[in-house]
């Protein structure tokens, strides 16, 4: 891919904020920070416009709650066309961490994430939204 250079004019205060971001996020330089911010904004737009996107739903739950596990499995079967992979890790004696990689229409992914995270007994859940391109 061809790299093009361009000049950016910024208020001193805003430039200081950009440099802080570079340090905090361990970006190698300002260009990488700007790339990151552009992609962040594009990903957000794709999700808002219900485009084909990708992401990961992370849930933590106690596997002793049998009804919870079967409800989660039923939901995952209902939305099987969106699910790319499921990774199950036994965190300790009680808790399981599941990472469900998903791809599809943004609204559908949100719907599945909301239903899974909203299941009674889920300790914690989060949807990580990213791009499918
Ligand atoms: Ni487990």
Features:
133 residues; alpha+beta; Alpha-Beta Plaits; 2 domains; four-stranded antiparallel β-sheet; 43% helix; 30% strand; binds nickel (II) ion
CATH architecture title of the largest domain: 2-Layer Sandwich
| Count of spatially separate domains | 2
Q: How many alpha or pi helices?
A: 4
Secondary structure category: alpha+beta
Mean pLDDT: 96
Could you say what the CATH topology of the largest domain is called? Alpha-Beta Plaits
Verbal overview:
With 133 residues, the chain is α+β, with helices and mostly antiparallel strands. It has 2 domains: 12-48; 52-131, ACT-like. Chain A, domain 2 (Alpha-Beta Plaits, 2-Layer Sandwich). It is 43% helix and 30% strand. The protein has 4 helices and 4 strands; from the N terminus they run H-H-E-H-E-E-H-E. A 4-stranded antiparallel beta sheet has the order 2-3-1-4. A hairpin with a 4-residue loop joins strand 2 (83-90) and strand 3 (95-105). Helix 1 crosses helix 2 (30-48). The two termini are 15 Å apart. The model has no long low-confidence stretch (mean pLDDT 96). It binds nickel (II) ion. The site of nickel (II) ion has 4 residues, from strand 2.
Topology:
Layout lengths: L11 H13 L5 H19 L3 E11 L3 H13 L4 E8 L4 E11 H12 L4 E10 L2
Helix pairs in contact: 1-2
Bound molecules: nickel (II) ion (NI).
């Amino acid at each position: 891919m061809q790299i093009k250079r361009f000049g950016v004019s910024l208020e001193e205060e805003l430039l200081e904020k950009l440099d802080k971001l570079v340090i905090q996020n361990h970006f190698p330089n300002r260009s990488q920070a700007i790339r990151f911010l552009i992609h962040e904004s594009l990903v957000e737009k794709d999700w808002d416009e219900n485009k084909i996107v990708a992401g990961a739903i992370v849930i933590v739950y106690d596997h002793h709650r049998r009804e919870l596990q079967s409800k989660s499995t039923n939901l995952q079967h209902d939305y099987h066309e969106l699910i790319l992979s499921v990774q199950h890790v036994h965190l300790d004696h009680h808790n399981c961490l599941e990472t469900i990689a998903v791809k599809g229409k943004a609204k559908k992914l949100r719907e599945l994430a909301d239903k899974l995270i909203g299941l009674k007994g889920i300790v914690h859940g989060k949807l990580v939204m990213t791009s499918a391109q």
